[in-house]
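Changelog note: in this version the structure field was regenerated for every chain. One regenerated record is shown below for reference.
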Amino acid sequence: MVREGYPATTVEEYLDAVPPEQGAALRLVRDRLLEVVPDAEQVISYQVPTIRYRGTGLVALSVARTHCSLHLMSPPLATSLAGVLDEGKLSGATLQFDADAPLSAATVRLIAERRMAEVDARLG
């Protein structure tokens, strides 16, 4: 999950450092996550913006040369979403999307709610 080229100590620094179109797309997805995840924390982990829930990494965001990524941080979740999502492209446990087509609020909510359920089940 480590991406080279955008060293940052805060999420805002990372988003400011990436190409503007990708930064705008990541900000939109991040803001949608913050609307869904109660008491979400924003941190840099493995050099990329990460949303934490209940002290646990929930999902992470990053950019590559040709796309943006939402790292699901759960191979079982990625498997369960195969064939369900109508946007982006799953590659392993990462949902790739174009900067000009950020993930919808519905997709972000679906992913966040399923990941939070996984964390809740593990933490009790």
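Spot check on this record: The domain at 11-123 is CATH 3.90.1150.200 (Aspartate Aminotransferase, domain 1). The mean pLDDT is 94.
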